[in-house]
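Per reviewer request, we include the raw input and output of the structure prediction for the construct analysed in the revised manuscript.
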Amino acid sequence: MPPKIEPRAVRVTSLSLTTIQLRSELDVTNPNSFPLVVRSVEGKLLVGSGVEIGRGQMPSGARIPAHGTERVVADMNLTWSNLVAFAPLATQGKPVPYTFDGTANVGGEKLNVDVPFKIRGELTAEQVIGAGLRGIQGVPGFP
């Protein structure tokens, strides 16, 4: 039987001029009589009305016991795919809603399945400004 994924939390932990750091927490339930492994978590970050701004992938290796549930934490660096689309939203001084549209590859030695999930969150204006300031610190000409 396919595993079930229940998204618990997603949080953008950092923004820079090259990457978006994202932490997601997923409860993965294994209905089978044998253990499973979460091989990888991947996805794309969408803002506003569904504009993709970044995507990434992370190997996992988290083990899900037979007939059990485990919390899987995925810390991922997403590469910006559309920083230009994010900039106007970031400068409005309002919270920026986002969705992480992801897939976890889960399975055993012989069979793996991709299990889709979505997690929604919101960046506050303070987070965007703070992350932006941290991101430009390494840029030549900025202190």
